[in-house]
Amino acid sequence: MDQDFSAGASASAVELYIAEHVAEHGVLPTIAQVREGGVRARTATIAAALRQARATAARTKASNSTSPEAVEAIVELGRAMASAATRVLDDEVASLVERVLAPARAVSDEVIAAAFGQRDAALAELAAEVELRAVERDVLENQLSSLRDDIAAIRSERDAALHARDLAFEQRDRALGEARAAQEVAELARSELTAAAESTQAAARQSEIALAEERGRRLAAEDRITALEGEH
Q1: Residue 195 has what pLDDT?
Q2: Which superkingdom (predicted)?
Q3: Domain-embedded: residue 189
């Protein structure tokens, strides 16, 4: 029976091979047979395992096969074989897990490193974006402050213009009132002038009538005087 154990097999692998060889052939193997069986271990390890197996076999052979001690020896041998098999399986599983998980762990480390790199890049990009937003916010706040100043200036100019307009309206109303008063005075003066002119015209007509009557009386008197002189 050959066993193909991986390099660096422990003493448990040697013990397992010896137990299986004894179970199959009924005798202990030699060091050469252990090596030919594919167990790669140090010579001292193989020799120590063979000495322990010979001692166990000698104790078993010396005792009665039907005695409780023989049964106990067989049970102990079975336990030793099971323990050795368990240790070999544990070593093989550990080696297999190491061979399988090492590349996966390396890949996982690369993935994690890449993820951290992406995270750092994203954080740097986010920090740059936040800084850009802060700059934009400062610019907007400055623009807003400038707009507020412009609005305040426009409101001040508007208030000044409204005040000037109100003053202009007051001056206009005052000028209109004065113009109406002057117009009323002018109309009154015109009415008085018209009345004076009419009175003057009436007086002139009366004077003309009186002059005409006086001229008629004077002409009549002259005619009478002329008539009297002609009689004499």
Answers
A1: 85
A2: Bacteria
A3: no
Report yes or no on whether pTM surpasses 0.85: no
Q: Which pLDDT value is given to residue 61?
A: 63
DSSP secondary structure code for residue 100 in this structure: H
Distances from the Cα of 193 to the Cαs of 7, 183, 198, 200, 208, in angstroms?
149, 15, 8, 10, 22
Number of domains in the chain: 1
Instruction: Give the span between the Cα atoms of 69 and 73, in whole angstroms.
Output: 6
For the segment 80-92, the average pLDDT, to the nearest whole number, is 66
Structure tokens at 143: 């623009």
- Torsional class of 169: left (φ above 0), alpha (ψ -120 to 50), beta (otherwise): alpha
Mean pLDDT of 95-120: 74
3-state SS, residue 110: helix
Q: 90: phi > 0 → left, psi -120 to 50 → alpha, else beta; which?
A: alpha
